[in-house]
Amino acid sequence: MTLAVLELCLRAAAIALLLVLAATLLADFRAVIAGRLAAAFALGAAAHAASFSIGAVRLASIWHVPLIALSTGTVVVFWLFTRALFDEDFKLRWWHGLVWAAVTAFSFVNCVWIAPAVSARVAIVAVNLLALAFIILAVAQTITSWSADLVERRRRVRVFIVCAAALYGGLNAVLQIAIADSGTADIANTINAVVLAAVVAAIAFAMMRVDGSELFPARPDIVVGQTAQATIAEDTADQKLVDALMRLMADERIYRQDNITIGTLASRLKIPEYRLRRLINQRLGYRNFNVFLNNHRIEEAKAALADPAQAEVPVITIAMDAGFQSLGPFNRAFKATTGVTPTEYRRLKASAA
Fold first, then answer.
1. pLDDT tens for residues 144-184?
2. Where are the beta strands (DSSP E) in 100-187?
3. Among candidate residues 303, 313, 311, the one with its CA nearest the CA of residue 350
């Protein structure tokens, strides 16, 4: 079997797996933002599998250009996917679509104008530097948000999926830049196809081992609503830990501390971090540590906003006293929980008094 035939078979296998994965995600998780973005990422990855060509400096054919443009736009989808996967309050905004459209359009223009008019080498470097930038953003999102996830199995699988995809995307972009107009292009393309097929197969296998409801975050209102229904005390040891944790929250108001982490709370309770994650997740019903903290902060803020004695206290002062670092995140978290802004909430409580 020649390298070209092997590469074609591997590409076909990767595309087939990605299309099946996209169809499954749309069927089961189209109501969840992270699920829809995962399906879009799988479709974009299929376009990449059909269009990548390491080391080629010849101009792309007309049918090839749209696939290359969609493949490039997939890095934006990947970045948004990591945000939705690790941030349960994430919402798609209109400007996210504009960013995707701009990157896709740049790739299209890059193929049909920059490559013929300037240099195919310049076009390849430009588009792959852009791809690397979004991959770095996605990895940064993974690193900064990972610790807040309280579902242990989901944390491991999330990191594997993101790191595997980022590693392949980063290596592919570096190879595209480094091996332009090189005699090793055929070998590099075959190796790339092997790695792509292996990564896609590994991600599909990893997703089959985890319940989809654990992997993809539910809407924040559902997550918080589970708190009242959680079984808090199945054994005495956990009950004591829950009581100790709630004393830290209610009496010491530890959630007010700057940069409070799950490690800080675990140290105060003298237990390992993994056990505290499991406690907050399984006993109190939270899937995200920041949601757990913000729930306590917002309850304090609600009490302050409803207090006639604090009617003249600025909203930002109440937010900072409750543990928020700035007004913007406080307003967003407060409205997501109550359905109204802090100012509207204060006015409603004053009218009802």
1. 777 787 877 767 777 777 788 888 888 777 777 776 555 55
2. none
3. 311
